[in-house]
């Protein structure tokens, strides 16, 4: 199991990549192939915190967008 401290830098990287639009419409298994499992895990954590929005897509998750809170988080860094 990953501890939250290890996940924080990956979450910030995920949020920055998401803000560029690179994840728009991507399914979690495609993100995993390109960036690794930890990136998907980071996106799920960001979704739980309300920074990004993931939708169910079969047995995967589909990335929809960065929320207003997520964009503010990027600006606060």
Keywords:
single chain; 77 residues; alpha+beta; 4 helices; 2 strands
Distance between the termini: 27 Å
Percentage of β-strand residues: 15-25%
Strand-and-helix sequence, N→C? HHHEEH
C-alpha Rg, in Å? 11 Å
Low-confidence segments: none
Main sheet summary: 2 strands, antiparallel
Question: Level of helix content?
Answer: 55-70%
Kindly describe this structure.
The protein has helices at residues 4-19, 28-35, 37-48, 68-76; strands spanning 52-57, 60-66. Helix 2 (28-35) crosses helix 3. The protein is 58% helix and 17% strand. With 77 residues, it is an alpha+beta fold. The longest helix has 16 residues, at 4-19. The chain contains four helices and two strands, in the order αααββα. It is globular. A two-stranded antiparallel sheet has the order 1-2.
